[in-house]
Design brief:
314 residues, alpha+beta, six-stranded antiparallel barrel
Length: 314
Amino acid sequence: MRDTRESRLLLVLMIAIAFALITVDIRAGEESPVDGARQAAAAVFGPVEKGVATAVDPVANAIGAVRDSGERHNRIATLERENAALKAKLGSDDQTRSRIHELDEMLKRAGAGQYGIKGAEVIAIGAAQGFSWTVTIDAGSKDGIERDMTVLNGEGLVGRVATVGPDTATVVLANDPDFTVGTRLEKTGELGFATGQGDRALSVQMLNGKAKVSPGDRLVTFGSRGNKPFVPGVPIGEVVKVDPSRGDLTRTIWVRPFVGFSRLDIVGVVVMPPREDPRDAVLPPKPEVKPTPTVTVTVTPSPSASVPGKPADE
């Protein structure tokens, strides 16, 4: 195209239209008028992303070993068999051992909560499809993945499924500023709402302004009606700061997520919710604090010690 006045005006017009579409998409959220185009793009480019990830990662296909949980009554036994088979396929190098550990922890969480999960691998990260904190996983509608399903890993809550293509899906992470999830405090059951804060601690508004909360307390998901987008009992994080109570109806606390969002690899999408709320069963046991031994030193004066002010031979 030649550099003419008409071509420059056309370029400015196209940029203006692009910014207008971005603004409409962000403000409309999930009701965005371009959501259809976004899903169409996922259908077109999803297989390409999945193919590239599979080509560069020789263990990617092994993740499929945990994609099917089996029937509810023998789900845990099935997952254990699949995990053992996966270990046999993966070898013994350092990276593989780390991934095996991730799988072990994820399957333990799924078993403790009685969640039926589909295993998936993170194949892309970053801002995508109108969201700020997202990852793309190599499982889609062909694998039974649907929008607004809970995503977890061996550490706890990862996020929720936002958009789904045939072979891939986009997951909005729990630290996204537009992400909100109902929370329940361990043991006391006090309820609240957690909101993502990017790379900072989650902000949680406790519904009871007089709730007793201390650093070190842990939170899990409260669960949504119909278990979408969140199933109950998934670990969220640990309280690191409690704002002073000023007699307000609510109270703000700050929670460090269990999940490391910058190092996500293997995740599980909950495709079958638990029959009952697991409450705190999915949280790992708290480590026992061993008391620090006290050492008592007794000083005994020597019989031959001289008295101050007197010669030693007196």
